[in-house]
Amino acid sequence: MQIEMKGIDKSFGSNQVLKDAGFVLSDGEVHALMGENGAGKSTLMKILTGVYTKDAGTIYVDGQEVHYKNPQEAEKAGIVFIHQELNVLYDLTVEENLFIGKEIKNKFGLCNQKAMRKKAEEALNRLGVHISPSEVMSNLSVGQQQMIEICKALMVDAKVIIMDEPTAALTQSETLVLFDVIRSLKKAGVSMVYISHRMEEIFELCDRISVLRDGTYIGTKNIPETNMNEIVKMMIGREIGERYPARNCKIGKTVLEVKGLTKKGVFQNVSFEVKAGEVLGVSGLMGAGRTEIMQAVFGNLPYESGSIEIDGKEVHIKSPIQAMRCGIGFITEDRKVEGLMLEESIEKNIALANLSRVSDHNVMNRKKEDDLVKKGIEELHIKCFGPNHECGNLSGGNQQKVVFAKWIYTDPKILILDEPTRGVDIGAKKEIYTIINELAAKGVAIIMVSSELPEVLGMSDRIMVVREGDIRGVIGKEEANQENIMTLATGGTI
Hints:
By secondary structure, the protein is an alpha/beta fold.
């Protein structure tokens, strides 16, 4: 299927998101669509699939002008959009999520459970996903839920599949499985639009790259004829320099020490320490227990045995409130569900996490609140219309900066970062890395959980590898490389 979009304009109120944007997709190609957060990539694809109505421009599919009124019309035409925001019904099973609105029925009009179970198992096996179709979605990790969304698209006879940050929640091994599926679909003539901020993936997988900047089409490059620096310059209009800013923080005394932490069936005998000014990277395959260990440290997941010490004194943390009082901050894996109130303003999100700083004797002080929020917007370079800008209308990178602002101003001794740059563009990533380094320079002990091995290697002083709830080893900077990390993550020794 061939698609051509020309002269697309789209505004939301006074905010023009797309201006004379365009995109061309050829038969059987994997075409990357790149740009900073807020560049208009997802909006352009939502216009193609009928989620939004364009203000101007034309769309041609196989030479015929089309206008899909809704995603269902686009799907019937063979165009499927896997959104970055997971379209998951958490209280239903995997099988029910896969077939909702597409149930297989018998001659009596009843659901054919046997046929649906077989088709679900085939789709899951194709992606190498070892999850029971009867499992409830709320019991799955974000990465597993993402794989179920990809399965949905594969179960439709799609001619074009649009993937918006499909690997943001996947581990390296799951990403490789997905790449194999994409390559097999390409051989079968399926065209794919691949929206991602992960440069390494795009240069490995895609045929061409088209770039949007500030809602305008900048250009298209064939992968063999370009390089990462050229694409970054097209995206942000300037050179970015080194991807990971130099670290020269002075590492101090041990701030956090975890001893023998255990929760049966989740993690066992977990022991590690983090020092002031240190970035401890945490790596491992999906489901290894990385997030669960950090949730236990933060008091959000009860553990059965073991101890936690802060500054050499044992603490008994039973809730996130207690963790905060002990000086622990936690930037969670899923900012949209756990990190932000999307319907509320930047001001409310930052202020609610810092009530003691913006109140006098339990009464809100408006000036203190305004000063703190304006400081956050300025220091973290949050692109917005002001403190009252609704967080749900910010780009992914700016949403993540709001989450950072919430926690930074609580003055944490220890800051846990769970996938801190997921779904964030390369320019915003570097800004976040700089914030991490600045916090470390102030003596904050930082734990950074990440599925991106280059990020772990580029930012960490030491790397702790978790496998099946067990600490397989802690690697110093000198011996840290992808091979050693993956060896430990898969059960080997180094």
